Amino acid sequence: ALVSGLTLAALTAPSEKYLTMSGPLMMGFGVVACASIASAFLPPTGMLGGGVMTIAVYGGVVLFSAMLLYDTQRIVRSCEMIPQYHNYDPIAQSISIYMTTINLFIRIVSIVSGNKRK
Fold it and tell me: Can you give the pTM of this predicted structure?
């Protein structure tokens, strides 16, 4: 339901509204990646480790939700510009949406399970 809602929002949004999010998405990806690496070395039972784990999980949900909006609008834009955009590859772009959905699913399952994997 979340993926369908975000995809619908990206499809009905004004043209290129979410395409300007590439810079903040990369910064968010850096923060979530650093938090994920740090959570491997810090114990999640401590205050610092728990905070880093929270950033990695909840920040990942926000990041991959925004990434889904960005990817959907990027695909729609490239489909609209097929005559000018000769390198259109629907398989690679579908895989990007698929991987974003899987990452979002993993984060949501981690939240729902109560992070018992710590």
Answer: 0.78
